[in-house]
Amino acid sequence: MSAVAPPAPRLVLADRVFPRTWVLDIVLVAAGAALTALLAQVIIPIQPVPITGQTLAVLLVGATLGWARGAAALGLYLVLGLAGLPVYAPQDDGSHLTGLAALAAPSFGYIIGFVVAAAAVGWLSERTWDRHVLKALATFVGGSIIVFAFGLPWLAAVTGGTFVQVLEWGLIPFIPGGIIKAVIAAALLPLAWWGANRLAKHRASDVDAD
């Protein structure tokens, strides 16, 4: 009786470009957290929740790294802010909330949602949803919805706002930007896959030539 072959590993973009090692996994997780921190500084200051570039980072990190490393990267980002590093979006005066002050902020629910959204986007990307524009767009819109599913209840609990107020503060202003971010990510990932596949074929041809 023949042995059953193990299932093929589910590849994401990072695995297409780099060899899979635990050292590189750590580097990629750290890089994902750093990218999120960087785009958190791209901000349109509205109250009580600012518009930032974080969600774009979440979508790209989840799709590129897969569910486990994507969730780890955003989990690291969450922990670094709570530990005191100025990685979250700045306040109006340029300061950064950290620790318990960040935990009590109206926007912290979105940060929790980032972890779940990165995992969900990564899970779908491991099933090739990031390689085709329409599936990628659906994936990234879904990831954005997950962020709001965590962010809005937290916003309501912290501010005590009514249902309508919470939508006005934490959802409606973000819809145009959210659509733009999802479209950008949905355009970038299939293009990146095309480039990665071309690079892999070029490397293979070089090996055959040798």
Properties at a glance:
single chain; 210 residues; mainly alpha; two-stranded antiparallel sheet; 2 strands; 69% helix
SSE string: HHEEHHHHHHH
Count of distinct strands: 2
Unreliable stretches (pLDDT < 50, length at least 5) are none
* Overall body shape: globular
Mind telling me the C-alpha Rg? 19 Å
Structural class: mainly alpha
- Which assembly state applies to the chains in this document? single chain
Average residue pLDDT: 91
What's the helix and strand layout?
Layout: H1 13-17, H2 22-40, E1 43-44, E2 51-52, H3 54-65, H4 67-82, H5 99-103, H6 108-125, H7 133-159, H8 163-170, H9 175-209
Antiparallel strand pairs: 1-2
